[in-house]
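Example record

The entry below shows one chain as it appears in the dataset: sequence first, then structure tokens.
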Amino acid sequence: MPLNYQALAGDFVRALRGKRSQVALSRRLRYSTNVVYAWESGRRSPTAATLFAAEARLNPPARDALRNFFASPPSWLAEVSLGTAAGVARLLDEVRGNTPVVELARRTGFSRYAIARWLSGAAEPRLPDFFALFEAASLRLLDFVAMFHDPLTLPSAKRAWQAVQAHRRSAYELPWLPAVSRALELRHYAELPRHVPGWIAEHLGISLEDETRCLAALQESGQIVRKRGRYLPASALSVDTRSDPARERQLKEWWARVGIERLAQGSPGQFSFNVFSVSSSDLERLRDLHQSYFRQMRAIIAASEPAEHVVVANVQLFDLAAIARRKREEGI
């Protein structure tokens, strides 16, 4: 469901204010007028940097919250404050990866000129514009918001956050669900006169029971609807599973096993490995390269049309000595 970014900005300010009065918070932030009233009512909006500087000042845990957003926190987080134009620019540039400015402009309706200035730090986005661009670049705005305030306490985000959480639970409990969802986008499925039970199962190489359970969960959560005998996507949602590391690890193990099974069955694909020794600095370069590859892959996927294949990409890069090293450090 689409978010109202202006309303979300007002709710975010209201959550920051807490039990303070608008006048008290305005004075605490060293404004001579009741600027907080203007921010909450939508008459004006703070820049993203202004708001995050206030968060860092009034909500100390927020200083470290952003590190939890990234699987591997970028090095610039230790050097640049999010409460500055430069920090906001670095964050937006980080989450957009290799997504072209022209694509971000298409997704948001902002001009390429404005986006380029925000990404360079030459101009500062208002908080609603920051939210809109962050969502277009990452598809994870609500996870970002949750680093600072519980989305269930924000009226403009509550229903969308509940949907994210429901979809996330489905992803944990029904690992085949995203594949079934993507299968409904396939051109060949769209050409069917009506839904054929078992078509998706055969196409993906899964059981009819898995197909049926996933379709039921997708329909119940509002992600798909049935019209004229076929299932159609009703909403697009990117679900990040990193909020529960243990269950996310289970999902990674599950998809790794799927890869092993398909390899054993002689499925065509890229099943390759390379065991090597490198320096610590070059290992970090390889990790950065893998992350860059993954971002580029996501950009290609986002722009790819028509949908003709459902694909799994398992990316692995790990130090064989890491487990032994961790055991030594923990005294095991």
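Notes for this example: The CA atoms of residues 20 and 152 lie 20 Å apart. Strands lie at 224-227, 230-233.
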